[in-house]
Design brief:
2 domains, about 45% helix, alpha+beta
């Protein structure tokens, strides 16, 4: 019995599972190794930090600690977030401290750690897809850019230069990158600086214009969809039933081609019915005939008219009829 089970397992599935396990172990081991180092961090007993925490209350208790295991600030933890500073931080230089604390506070408030975790899970599942790897890199970049933008918006555009200089100073000290903390690599610092210096507050006029554009495009597409459903040449009213051909392969199994009824219900309602299965209500098929030509043929789950138009077929077990 086990041999039969093993033979039925696809080699592709085995390869995918191996890749998933390898990626998951990489993230897990790296995260656990870093958390072990962070456990030695000590709380910061500083008047400025206490004042800052009092001015930035959150439902989650944000701890501010310092460690000799890191060289630049970072944030970790979802339910009990921790802002971790290097042990050699100059606590008397309050200006850059405000920028750093606000930057990490934005990460905490926006649950960026959780978002990064979800991206890591997606990467583990879709490790074989190069576009998912690209998504992972770009998503982490966008998280940092969004955080920078929020900080600049909070302190004002006049602080862009000072904030950028703070980032440069931190980047010079940085030596490594961990995947499940809010930190940033050296290769992207230039892009962050450029983005900060080019930042301009979005005007209310631009926001209103963008909203109007989205509403307008949505309305146009909705109207176009409705027109496509209504602008059909329906056949003229008739009292008798038309017989058309149902091609092989529509029903389950290898049934021979058979005839079906096309019946007039109202000016905009028609039904197509397999008369050989009328006695069995569960098997009866009811379809809609929206085109202007009676010479139609059913193939698989589509209706094809003589002029080549393809129309969706409706199953009687789900829809008794369909209006246009």
């Amino acid at each position: 019995m086990p041999e039969t089970v093993y033979k039925n397992i696809s080699p592709i599935l085995v390869i995918w599972l191996i890749g998933l396990i390898v990626c998951a172990l990489f993230f897990l081991i790296t995260h656990l190794r870093c958390r072990k180092e962070y456990q030695t961090a000590l709380p910061v007993d500083n008047a400025f930090v206490k004042c800052w925490k009092r001015d930035h209350p959150t439902r989650r208790n944000v701890q501010i600690r310092q460690s000799d295991k890191i060289v630049s600030p970072l944030t970790y933890g979802i339910f009990r977030p921790v802002i971790l500073f290097p042990k050699r931080t100059d606590w008397t230089d309050e200006a850059p401290l405000r920028y750093i604390l606000m930057h990490e506070f934005v990460h905490i408030r926006c649950l960026d750690i959780l978002i990064k975790l979800l991206f890591a899970i997606s990467l583990c599942i879709h490790w074989f897809n190069p576009f998912v790897w690209l998504m992972y890199v770009l998503a982490n970049r966008d998280i940092e850019l969004s955080c920078d933008e929020t900080v600049v918006r909070t302190f004002g555009e006049t602080t862009k230069s000072a904030y950028a200089l703070t980032l440069i100073g931190l980047e010079e000290k940085k030596s490594h990158l961990t995947p499940l903390v809010n930190n940033f690599g050296k290769n992207a610092i230039e892009e962050r600086i450029v983005s900060i210096m080019k930042f301009k507050r979005t005007s209310s006029f631009c926001i209103v214009g963008a909203i109007c554009l989205v509403i307008g495009v949505t309305t146009v597409f909705a109207a176009s969809f409705q027109n496509n459903n209504h602008n059909m040449n329906l056949p003229e009213k008739f009292n008798s039933q038309y017989i058309i051909e149902l091609s092989q392969g529509h029903h389950t199994g290898d049934l021979d081609p058979q005839n079906v009824f096309l019946t007039y219900l109202s000016e905009k309602k028609y039904k197509l019915e397999d008369f050989k299965l009328q006695q069995d209500e569960d098997m009866k098929r009811t379809y809609v005939y929206p085109a202007g030509n009676v010479e139609i043929q059913l193939t698989a789950y589509d209706v094809k008219t003589s002029n080549g138009d393809i129309v969706r077929v409706w199953d009687a077990r789900q829809f008794s009829y369909h209006e246009f």
